[in-house]
Amino acid sequence: MTMLLPLFILVGFIAGYFVNA
Fold first, then answer.
1. ∠ CA(4), CA(6), CA(10), 5° rounding?
2. 6: exposed, middle or buried (Cβ count in 10 Å: 0-12, 13-18, 19+)
């Protein structure tokens, strides 16, 4: 479960990067 938090952060960061670009 602890491994899920960084995964969501990474997905959110990538999604925000694509939205910003």
1. 115
2. exposed
Q: What CA–CA distance (Å, rounded) separates 1 from 4?
A: 5
Which pLDDT tens digit goes with each residue over 1-21? 678 999 999 999 999 999 997
Q: Where are the alpha helices (DSSP H) in the chain?
A: 4-20
Say if pTM beats, i.e. exceeds, 0.85: no
CA distance 13 to 8: 8
